[in-house]
Amino acid sequence: METEHAEHFPPRQQNFFPLSQVSGADRIPLMSETLHDRVRKRLEELDLTPAAASLKARLSKEMLRKLLGNPDAMPSGKSLTALATALEVSEQWLLSGGETPAAVKTDVRRASSTPPPRHEMPNDVPVRGTAAGSHLRGAFQITADHVDFVRRPPTLTNVVNLYSLYVEGTSMEPQYAPGDLVFIHPDKPARIGDAVVIQCQIDQEGAMEATIGILIRRTAEKVTIRKHNPPAEIDLPRETVLSIHKVLTNNEIYGI
Prior knowledge:
Helices cover 23% and strands 22% of the residues. The chain is an alpha+beta fold and 256 residues long.
């Protein structure tokens, strides 16, 4: 029986992919494109990294990288829904293809010219610390983990790495008072005259602290910021500066 079977189905005519190469809904003969391929295609079309798409879907930053790294892995139902929304396609297209992604409108916010009401926005912007008002040294540290979440402004729906801080101290009054919430866009270049949060390394062991101020100048040797109360200019050695993140203005936050 084995000899007859081999003669009737010669290996060169076998049209099935090994199960190790396909999974879930993609275990269909002759289907060369998998869910993983379709995800990669949308990442390229939307110019998103796996990490950015994961955050846009409000999943863990490493979720999509791990999924794409394992051909046999399939997302859970909840994750599939979130990924479909982030990639602006339907769940059915992710699973089996068919309709073109451009014909799918799952992200109603992007499809609409009018931002949704503020109360409909998710509480998904992480609060990563407090922006202290010390003149001489930054008395706060931006944390990798959140300490709270606040509601996302409608005009910032698609900003992936947005975070926020609470202001402490009075050195930035009257522009920022103690307790004010500021939104930080780390991917938007800071210009001279912008309010910024600067994080610095203060010793060889890697300890860090940060401060908020108005960006005055940048040279190869130092970064200079201005404080309001009392008026002062603070020089930060350039070699200690780890990041300069832009604080968004009310116009940028509320679309005024």
